[in-house]
TrEMBL record:
This is DNA-binding domain-containing protein, AraC-type. It comes from Saccharomonospora glauca K62. Pfam families: HTH_18 (PF12833). PANTHER family: BLL1074 PROTEIN (PTHR46796:SF15), HTH-TYPE TRANSCRIPTIONAL ACTIVATOR RHAS-RELATED (PTHR46796). Keywords: DNA-binding, Transcription, Transcription regulation.
Length: 256
């Protein structure tokens, strides 16, 4: 049974707690798996099994997780700088990228690193990403004023189609410049940022008691089936489970 806490921000979802069963699936995000107590069990698309403490599963890789272990799971957008750096780490193992052996090998540095398990789950994932994908993390900067304004305006547009040109006009900057700011300062392409913002809006709406249909429409999805499909594609989990089976930590989307 899934029981724990979740923090969601554009580009990343972090879960900490009891890991439930996740039958064979694949998703669009890169997944980090960290066992904080007993070993976690994974199986890849070929049927190869593994038990261990850390793994990096690239997007599109078929896998299965057996519940029972306590740990931290993180889903990182595959199109962002961090996701690309994590995927590159899996490829550099020289093993088939769809194999559990490659996923475990990619995470090997974590076994030689002292992680602050007492920290928040998001803090632990920050440590992990700094260890595994330092080149993928955008340098700490004070966000460009136009980007900060765009991030503030974007939520008011989520119930409809969000176009980069329209958002750029609202903050007085060219669309090409704003697109570069999303990638350079947030490490996430504009389209990916919007997708994660929609997921956050929908899950927040459902968590507060709205139906999945209401949540989907509030976030700009066509219907509840569309929302459910995107959640499964990104995380391998249903939006209803994300909304109600866990406790949510609210985080600011960005700072600067």
């Amino acid at each position: 049974m899934w029981q724990g806490t979740v923090a969601l921000r554009p580009g990343r979802l972090v879960y900490a707690g009891q890991v439930g069963d996740a039958h064979r699936h694949r998703h669009a995000a890169v997944q980090l798996v960290l066992a904080t107590e007993e070993l976690v069990w994974l199986c890849d698309g070929s049927g190869a099994e593994w038990r261990g403490r850390a793994a990096v599963i690239p997007s599109g890789a078929e896998h299965e997780i057996a519940g029972g272990a306590a740990g931290v799971l993180a889903w990182v957008d595959a199109d962002g700088a961090l996701g690309q750096a994590l995927t590159a780490r899996v490829r550099r193992t020289g093993l088939p990228v769809g194999s559990v052996a490659a996923w475990a090998s990619a995470a090997q540095p974590l076994l030689d690193t002292s992680l602050a398990v007492g920290d928040s789950a998001s803090g632990m994932v920050d440590q992990v990403l700094a260890t595994l994908a330092p080149a993928g993390a955008p340098a700490p900067v004070s966000l460009h004023p136009a980007l900060r304004q765009a991030i503030a305006v974007l939520p008011t547009m989520l119930d409809q189609s969000v176009r980069l040109e329209r958002l750029a006009a609202a903050v007085g900057i060219s669309a090409s410049r704003l697109g570069h700011l999303f990638s350079d300062e947030l490490g996430l392409p504009f389209r990916a940022y919007v997708r994660w913002a929609r997921l956050q809006r929908a899950i927040d709406h459902a968590r507060l008691g709205g139906t999945l249909t209401e949540a989907a429409h509030a976030a700009g999805f066509a219907d509840s089936a569309h929302l459910t499909r995107v959640c499964h594609e990104m995380f391998g989990l249903a939006p209803s489970g994300l909304a109600r089976a866990v406790h949510w930590h609210r985080r600011r989307a960005v700072s600067g």
